[in-house]
Amino acid sequence: MADLSSPHSLLGGSASTNSIRIAETGYDDRTNRFELKADYPFAGDTWHQRTVIEPTSADAMMATSYLSFGAVPEWKGVEIKYTRRANCSPGTP
């Protein structure tokens, strides 16, 4: 069970065989961002992933994931911009 009393609580259940751990660092009012961090074994090394979710308006946000492993400096792996679609008629995908 996650220790929700800590701002760096680990999320994930003990019943899982998955060794990936995601740490929620939380929402930062100063930077207006939410951040998640994960460490997981891959290709004989421990990889580190940091995902930053930033609302850019009431209808848009940006999610950026950064990766690193070993002594390799962190790099931007992916950046996704989300925008809420205008109301569509029923049946429109």
Q: Figure out the total of helices.
A: 0
Mean pLDDT: 77
Q: In which range does the helix fraction lie?
A: under 10%
The termini sit apart by 38 Å
Return Rg in Å. Answer: 17 Å
- What is the domain total for the residues? 1
Overall SS class = mainly beta
Order of helices and strands: EEEEEE
Uncertain segments are 1-16
Global shape: elongated
In percent, how much strand structure appears in the residues? Answer: over 45%
Strand order of the largest sheet: 1-2-3-4-5-6
Largest beta-sheet characterization: 6 strands, antiparallel
Q: Using DSSP, what is the number of strands? A: 6
Q: Would you write up a description of this structure?
A:
The chain has 93 residues and is mostly beta strands. The chain has no helices and six strands. Strands 1-2-3-4-5-6 form a six-stranded antiparallel β-sheet, with no helix packed on it. 0% of the residues are buried.
Topology record:
Elements lengths: L9 E2 L9 E8 L4 E10 L2 E13 L2 E10 L2 E12 L10
Antiparallel strand pairs: 1-2, 2-3, 3-4, 4-5, 5-6
Please give a quick description of this structure.
With 93 residues, the protein is mostly beta strands. Helix content is 0%, strand content 59%.
